[in-house]
Amino acid sequence: MSNQSVAEYEVARSKAKSLYPRYERKEELQHQTHFCPGCGHGIVHKMVAQAIDELGVQDRTIMVGPVGCSVFTYYYFDTGNVQSAHGRAPAVATAIRRSRPESIVISYQGDGDLSAIGSAEILHAANRGENITVIFVNNAIYSMTGGQAAPTTLLGQKSTTTPNGRNAATEGYPLHVSELLSTLQAPAYIERVGLGDNKQIAQASRAIKRALDNQVRGLGFSLIEVLSPCPTIWKMTPVDSQHWVRDVMEKTFPLGVFCDRTKERLAAPAAQSVPAPALDELPGILGVAEEDLPEGNAAAMAKEQEIDLEVRIAGFGGQGVLLLGEMLAEAGLDAGLEVSWLPSYGPEMRSGTSNCHVRLSRQTIDSPLVTAPTVLVAMNEPSLRKFDRSVRSGGWIIYDGDEFPADCAREDVHVLALPFTRIADAMGDKRAANMVMLGAVLERSGVLPQASIDAALRRLIKNPRWVELDERALARGRELFKEALAEA
Amino acid sequence: MKKQLMKGNEAIVKSAILAGCRAFYGYPITPASEIAEAAAEFMPKTGGVYVQAESEVAAINMLYGGASAGVRVMTASSGPGISLMQEGISYMAGAELPCVIADITRAGPGLGNIGAEQGDYHQVVKGGGHGNYRTIVLAPHSVQEMADLTALAFELADCYRNPVVLMADGFIGQMMEPVEFPQSATPTHLPEWAVAGTAASRGNLINSLSLDFDELEKHIQKLEAKYKLAEQRETRAEEWMTGDAEIVLVGYGIVGRILKAVTAEARAAGLKVGVLRPITLYPFPKVQFQRLAFNARLFVVVEMSNGQMLEDVKLALNGSRPVEFLNRMGGNVPSHEEVLRFVQELARREGLEQKTPDRKTAEEERMANV
Ligand SMILES: Cc1ncc(C[n+]2csc(CCOP(=O)(O)OP(=O)(O)O)c2C)c(N)n1
């Protein structure tokens, strides 16, 4: 390749099959590119196209072109084309490659695009080791928008936004993308090349082909950084700008291979991809196949009995508030009732108190929120004080404590206050207090068949030791409630 | 059909996979995280892709990539994450790419809190990104609807080649209710416009850039025509006891549930109250509002926002009926008692007939079966 070809105005005469012979997506001047004379993008396009041709992957190739001077990759590449948002091409490429493992995906990005606005996307695509090829054209400037500074702008280099030259004290230092990404463990191959002279250009061409070949072989993430002239913005002749790449840019951005794991990757056995299951297996895999769902015990429910249970359960996180509610809802569903379970959620759950709303009804449940419960299960005093006033007249409060606070007593509400945690502790584990209290709730409401409660317990508790303990706890709760009634 | 107890967030993922979704890209946020967690479990088992993205910006662009390649894709987030996705949503609408986005809303602005709120209405329904586009928005109010509307969302997204947002508040995402699923899975197919890395799709281009002003104007008009079609064909709303309603309560999501409870009590007190619950927030069910306006004396909008849907209700009614407004914000939910009081107050003001509610018997009836 001659010096002349770098400065060449068009790639239209290229022999590469992977470039369109005529740029019909371009509005005018369809025989030439939109690149300025001497721009490096033109030659990099040609190198990429040649690599695609040589590897015979034109049909499989998808070019992802984000924003910058390379935004029009789809004008030129006779491959699949996806235009993307500024900086986001590695994310776009990730998803294409993951879903279409036979495709060859190239993310073609400028230095503003990749190292500034898209710095997160490139870092993480590299760190995940996406099997894509990134062509990173570094011209040390934002060209498309008229010459503003980029993270790659050299110290002292003038741009429209660093009119006195880039100053490290205020603008920091040129970002070394290749070196930075080479500190990661996932990338397969990272090399910086230049378009500064013929020798460099020949090496650039080899590197680009290699990076693409890596993808074809499934070796992982490859990135080729190309130091590339921008005569128009740099305000130099094409020849001078080419020299500037070699004589000036290269001092800040040394050429070379920064990471090469291709040998070890080639030696490692390729991961076997698991074939997708057949469509008719999906409901089973998702756990929603009707034949796998339990029959339930609706038949055991007394038909004539009306039921509208509105329960609020509250306590500390870790006391099993949510599980108590879930057991109740699950048993209700098993008994053929309409049910809803609504938890308090988030940090509240982690840092302290927790509560949930449960409704069981024969009718469609309008609101799952229980603001006036018919039963309040309060597993500690703060929870009692938070909700005691809301209990519906004639309702019940089941409280875990030796003594019911006198100032919480209401004439129109029944109370069962017992040291449930201590009772559970004596039975084997204080964490079963929730089930003792649930036993009391069940005995009070008296509507759910025992078979439904057993079924719910077995669905929610997998550890046999706990199933046994919880069964005893539920029975104990029922007894305690009956004893309390008898005493009253 | 047998049902099972399930969280709304989990139902979304199962329904999505049955509807042919084969890629999920997301970033964790309460109260939407269970969706990503379920996707992480089930996508790989069902031949799909799951990636936890580095941000919502990356996630939505992964959707852009997956959709470009002709895959049914989805993500899930909440207010702060949806804000970050707006750029990508605009690009997807511009490039006519289908996708499904679940917004399990929380309270804002800023970091706000994780309580349920409906303050995302403007950014989701009106389009928080740049340019002339719309997103179709579905608002489930139960776990069953989480499943059903997710499946519908994928159909609509493909049909209109446009992003569809499933907007549910934190309650609907977090609560468990009985739910049933279709027993057969939708086969995946490759749309003819997709860029799939095959000889047949080599000439295809996914793009939202159009330098020529006239060409872009034509493109926007084409998008507009799609939205008009959706307005004619896709509006959905549930009416609850509206037959003779003099007062029509309006609310979506969890509020719709509360309004149903209010209706039962208001009716017991002799008030002719009904509920109009928009299921599609865009396209907005204007016609249903106009029809109910014939009988209704007034409309009451109840929202967990500063009146963001209220504007659409007023536009739909166009001054034909008075519109009253009750709201709670910051993670608070209007209790059905406070809505009921508000409605009774309005009824008194309007001179609508109401029985003196026989509180005691109503209570006794309720308690008889506790
Ligand atoms: C979100 C967003 N911000 C800003 C822009 C404007 N913009 C277009 S191209 C560009 C700079 C591209 O520079 P670079 O990636 O270095 O490519 P070059 O033009 O130098 O080839 C910018 C800032 C945009 N399109 N989108």
What is the topological layout?
The complex is a heterodimer of chains A (488) and B (370).
Chain A: H1 3-6, H2 40-55, E1 61-65, H3 73-76, E2 80-83, H4 89-99, E3 104-110, H5 111-117, H6 119-128, E4 133-138, H7 168-171, H8 177-181, E5 189-194, H9 198-216, E6 222-227, H10 231-234, H11 238-252, E7 256-260, H12 262-267, H13 282-285, E8 308-316, H14 321-334, E9 338-343, H15 347-351, E10 353-361, E11 375-378, H16 381-387, E12 396-400, E13 414-418, H17 420-427, H18 433-445, H19 450-460, H20 464-487
Parallel strand pairs in A: 1-2, 1-3, 3-4, 4-6, 5-6, 8-11, 11-12, 12-13
Antiparallel strand pairs in A: 5-7, 8-10, 9-10
Chain B: E1 4-7, H1 8-18, E2 21-26, H2 33-45, E3 49-52, H3 56-68, E4 72-77, H4 79-94, E5 99-105, H5 121-125, E6 136-138, H6 143-160, E7 163-169, H7 170-174, E8 176-179, E9 205-206, H8 213-233, E10 237-240, E11 247-250, H9 254-268, E12 273-278, E13 280-282, H10 286-292, E14 298-303, H11 310-317, E15 323-327, H12 336-350, H13 359-367
Parallel strand pairs in B: 2-3, 2-4, 4-5, 5-7, 6-7, 11-12, 11-14, 14-15
Antiparallel strand pairs in B: 1-8, 6-13, 10-12
Bound molecules: thiamine diphosphate (TPP).
Structural category of chain A is: alpha/beta
Subunit organisation of the chains: heterodimer
Q: Compute the gyration radius of chain A: what is it?
A: 35 Å
At CATH's second level, what is the architecture of the largest domain in chain A?
Answer: 3-Layer(aba) Sandwich
Radius of gyration of chain B, rounded? 22 Å
Which strands sit side by side, in order, in the main sheet of chain B?
A: 3-2-4-5-7-6-13
- Summed up, the domain count of chain B is 2
**How are the strands ordered across the major sheet of chain A?**
2-1-3-4-6-5-7
Which small-molecule species are bound to the chains here? Answer: thiamine diphosphate
Assign an overall shape of chain B: globular
The first-to-last residue Cα distance of chain B is 29 Å
Query: What percent of the residues of chain A sit in helical stretches (DSSP H or I)?
Result: 25-40%
The CATH homologous superfamily of the largest domain in chain B is termed Thiamin diphosphate (ThDP)-binding fold, Pyr/PP domains
Estimate the global geometry of chain A from the Cα principal axes.
elongated
* CATH class categorisation of the largest domain in chain A: Alpha Beta
